[in-house]
């Protein structure tokens, strides 16, 4: 055990709590992308005092980027005394809207009963604060460490990461030789290592029809009924088939250990805002359906798509007047970092030392910024590891446990030590 490192972290609990509460007080709500710049600057100013080189990088022209809501990211780097690998801690600073049902002010950084409350407490300002405390303690105990440490606070993870990690990865911030190991302190629990996530295919299907008077539907062609035929085929064929596709990926919760598809939305005919409270008098000539298909390492995206398009093509052959369009909205490949990857082994050893047990290895049902690190940056030595309970994310009275943050900070510091100084104690 590295007593000195762990004791140093224990001595900084107040700092850790204050840092977490301060971060929560920036209402970095996305959308629209509120308070990104002051939050990034707060992180940058703190690390500048520690002699980090600090850059603010705006995701110019990315979705939502305007002068009112600039997509400002912060990347801080500290080079050690001698060459060596770089460890990068990446946290998103954006949070989702507070919503209703809170018993505390979601942006006050309330501390009570051993917890810090607020929107983003667990997802993921607590993890960001824990990583900063871990890094600072490590640098104080081992000022002569080799290699380099980076800490970033990035935007827009909650809306796809285009102005944040994706933008930075496109500029080389998440590639070799600059970076070797990436840890993303998302709230996956202090004793679990998240190796990756399932894949995503979002698409919009449109059926067409022909407008006519609602009293004489036989004169037109009803696009909503065509979509009904699509949904019926999904119910009868596709959903049962997806249920049967199990995966070896250790996805949590277990219900997500198979292929899934959500119908996100369906719209057809004249919109309600056009005639509030009144039904449309017409035969609808269009209907659009959005699907969110989550797929597995064992599947490939071409097959995933053809399962859907083959149903649509068959309807086109068999159902009179049926025609459709399909448009991709988003594609993400599934990812699973190897268990013997250096960053996995280093954090596993930290968990072993702090909790005296082996970590659980998990896969997230949904995606997070690891996709951009892998796909654009080509860094595969990447995991999510951080304090907080995922189920609390995005909910009212979100909180992070102070002791959980302290323990995770210790695990991160031990992992950092192993990756940079390469010593196993
Ligand atoms: Zn998150």
TrEMBL record:
Source organism superkingdom: Bacteria
InterPro entries named in the record: ArgE/DapE, Bact_exopeptidase_dim_dom, Peptidase_M20, Peptidase_M20_dimer, Peptidase_M20A
Residues in Peptidase M20 dimerisation domain copies: 196-318
Keywords from the named record: Cobalt, Hydrolase, Metal-binding, Zinc
One GO MF term attached to the UniProt entry: hydrolase activity
Record keyword rRNA processing present: no
Keyword Metal-binding tagged: yes
Requisite cofactors: Zn(2+); Co(2+)
Annotated NCBIfam families: DapE-ArgE (TIGR01910), PRK13013.1 (NF009558)
Family: Belongs to the peptidase M20A family.
Xref: PANTHER family: ACETYLORNITHINE DEACETYLASE (PTHR43808), ARGE_DAPE-RELATED DEACYLASE (PTHR43808:SF32)
Name of protein: Acetylornithine deacetylase/succinyl-diaminopimelate desuccinylase family protein
